[in-house]
Task: structure prediction
Amino acid sequence: MAATTVTIPGNLSDFAVTPRPDLHPVLHFIPTGITSSGNQILFPYITPVTPDSSGNFTVTVPITEGLTPDVGIRVRVDWIDNVGQVADQDWFPGQLRIPINGGTLATLIQTSNPGSYVIVSEEMPTAAYIYWYQPSTGNLTAWS
Result:
């Protein structure tokens, strides 16, 4: 039976190539939808990964090459504060496409379809997003 996952190493740091000591990151690798391979139906699952103190991590992700319909893997970073709350959140632009032989993060990213961005806040955002969700009212507003 062929491998259905590959393990990919990575490092999470800022543009100065240093980790953020004030917050604790958790990366989430999220397949973009339900798909199939042969006679199997594959449903998405979220793979959380916590980098070490230097920002290094490894993640085991599903191979997406040859799946129907085509799916990718989105990457989200939750920045956790010292009381365990999400203080900030970043979405990696685009999607990872995972071939049978794996690769480096730089070779796996495809940015032609970055997806939608939603800000969740009680206050109207100061920057333009594609959608704004207000939890207290349940309103989802398309930003223009």
